[in-house]
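Protocol step 4 of 6: structure prediction from sequence.
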Amino acid sequence: MHDDRSLVESRLKRVLDERIRPAVYPESVPLEVGIWTAPDEPVPVAEGLAAPRRPIAVGDAWGAPWGTSWLTVSGTVPEAWAGRTVEALIDLGFDKNMPGFQCEGLVYRPDGTPVKGLNPCNQWVRVAAPAAGGEQVLLHVEAASNPVILDYHPFLPTELGDKETAGDQPQYTLARMDLAVFDETVWHLVADLEVLGELMAELPVDGPRRWEILRAVERALDAVDLQDVGATAAAARAELAGVLAAPAVPSAHRLSAVGHAHIDSAWLWPLRETVRKVARTTANMTALLEDEPDFVYTMSQAQQYAWIKEHRPEVYDRVKQAVAEGRFVPAGGMWVESDTNMPGSEAMARQFVHGKRFFLEEFGVENQEAWLPDTFGFTGGLPQIIKAAGSKWLLTQKISWSQVNSFPHHTFWWEGIDGTRIFTHFPPIDTYNCSMKGSEIAHAARNFKDKGRASHSLAPTGWGDGGGGTTREMIAKAARMRNLEGSATVTWEKPADFFAKAQAEYPEPPVWVGELYLELHRATLTSQAKTKQGNRASENLLREAELWAATAAVQAGLPYPYQELDRIWKTVLLHQFHDILPGSSIAWVHREAERTYAAVAEELTGIIAGAQQALAGDATSGTEVVFNATPHERGGVPAAGGRPTTPGRRGSCSLQQRPEGGYLLDNGLLRVAVDGRGLVVSVYDLAQERETIAPGTAANLLQIHPDFPNMWDAWDVDQFYRNTVTDLTGLDELTVAAEQPEAVAVRVTRSFGASKVVQTLTLTAGTKRLDMDTEVDWHETEKFLKAAFPLDLHTERYASETQFGHQHRATHTNTSWESAKFEACNHRFVHFAEPDWGVALVTASTYGHDVTRTVRPEDHGTTTTVRVSLLRAPRFPDPHTDQGLHRFRHALVAGATIGDAVREGYRINLPERRVPGDAEVAPLVHVDNDAVVVSAVKLADDESGDVVVRLYEAHGGRARATLHTSFEHTAVQVCDLLERPLGTEAQVREDGIALHLRPFELVTLRLTRTGATA
């Protein structure tokens, strides 16, 4: 037989595009349209409905960037359409290739009831089925003219990312505005042909199934009268019925489809627009659930539910009803889909606390899964946090984006730094925006790396990023693939049902130990420095506010600010969303974030001050109380306590000029040499007689690189950036900044490009650290600024702090996996060590760093260089990223153990506070082993007055300790993160609460106070 396959396939494409799809709406009449444009920000619905309209017609321009226009569409159903299905077709000027990234709308009835959202893939509104002739149609559309930021030529700098710079030129042209007859038979024929045509393209050319489908399609096309598609659609469908009815083979891959719309809580749009995106999407999805009995939809991010509860209560009522019916499924149990690299220990825990508690209180739903499809990598501390929150599964898709190494599993146990294992699934469909294309379904089956041992994967289905969700077309295609020969089987299921089945099928999957590093988007550890500093400062202030407010409540009877702390935590957690904290959002988002962090700091500082004043005693005594919020004793002040100042010196420091230029700083423990260029050429540990800095090198060396990645400017730094580097050794000025017995310091001033940097290097009495305060007035473009510290250390790995512990990374590049980690994350410290001596570099606000090693030809010693990442200057999506003044604080700690690294990391982040007073402030709790670190002291969220203490083993070894309290208590229970008892009583002895912790083990204790009241 002659091979006419290509001929039939080409025929199918043209007939579908030019004849059958247009025949879904065979008759139409134009609607009348009026418009009113809000003068500034979005207005309440009632105001938008009542505002006067002016006429507008198809072809007219509308919509300034970030504007809101209210459209009214009206018309009359023709008498001839009586008894037929009629829909309104509303095209605001959509580009079908950009769902979620352009203009959108929400349709209302005249009484203000929301109907559904409008987007490029969802332009219809059902008017009547069946319609009555002469029926009047009146609909209102709240239309958002969000500009296109990520255009066909992506990553071009644009001023459209901020309302203040975007201008007022209309962005869109009004397109189709019609009433139309909807031909359901033709619509089904389209779905039949799309499914079979897409399936056919994935089947082997020499297989019989492909040819069976081809001949059925040919017969169907023969049956269609191209001049009267509607009249012949049923006959064409009959020709396809047989091949659509052929069942899947028993070994077919099984896909659990989950309705989904990954909605970024901010990205190429501001937070306020996400509120409306969520309302549009959830309005669509609740309507779709009513029409499609098999459909299941899931949405994560408790914050997004809270938004529609506050701003669109009518939509929220529909969501609550659908949740109660088990069709609309809250997923993930987190406040937002946060970044997981940079949030601190407590913040990562509170993502689950606030997310899960919201779902429990609002819906009675307890999530078992963490749902993070788009987060940029996962730290080794996360499995323990997931488990401590009462969950046991994780889903993500993003690791499939890695540039170098293909992850070896799709379903596996993920083991964290403490040994906790979480059953984890990466959907092999490699997208969180599945649209039910045959190519996607076939890719999932082919790509699944656990085949032969497992046969089940998940497909998040629906338009996402900017929202939109699942469409009726996706549901129609899924229905045809429920049991179809040649295809994976597709069934709508809840995430929990998928995970339960997958784990039952595959109870002993392979194990992956340690972080899930994304080999992409590494620059998100540095972009938008002020956002990152705001996050770190907020986390530190929240720790202090809870600690001192709890102490003041227990010891002084001061009311505990439950509501204020709850609200502030949620604000901080929102800004840890994976496109805000990583610095990958538009300028508007980061401008707002800076203001928000300032307000958070002001309010938390007020809470801290009020609590400390209540504890400090007589403010007129002439003395001060020093408060220490760190988990370790400092300067004679106990951890989490306060003590009046006492005279005394910890030693003395000296500063002298070096004959060859520069200065020598000495405190009896360290001797630091700063050369005539203002570079640190020696940090000598006097007790150990050990040099920190590698011979022939200089530390605190600022280096600048060109930084123009191949794509994803704010997100990425590509490895070739290292090929070109400029050492910033030019000196404007080197002066003495301080010369006191307690501390000596030098100040270094440099200029480069259009920028200037001032660094103050300080050596304090009684310490083995060199503090570095760096102020940069940054005006570079597409540059990357780092500070290098070449260490005279031979080690194959180093420690990097993460949540509730630290993880190790290689210093070498033996494999492609190690080579790909050329930029990595730390929290407060990185630590390098030989068996008897080590060095820590601690930071108050930076996260990105890189580590390299070389062997010196002169003495064959190893130089291990760590470089902290300070600033970048990408131009997309914010063309002015990081321009302006920045301040960073770091410290180099010589002779440091891992315990020293932990202690100094807390010290630099939690400076002591001094308050007028004379009282001794006893810590509520203290631990007699420095390896056990208290991460939170607070009152229980249920306002019972119980004290909650969270602690963890921080050194990576087993630890025995006793927790002592300064208040009487009647019970001590071990709890989960949500402060719910786990049924385990703590071991209480006469001298305190006995603790026996595994390496990095996290424990939450709830102490019921004697006679406490809320």
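Step 5 (inspection) to follow. The radius of gyration is 31 Å.
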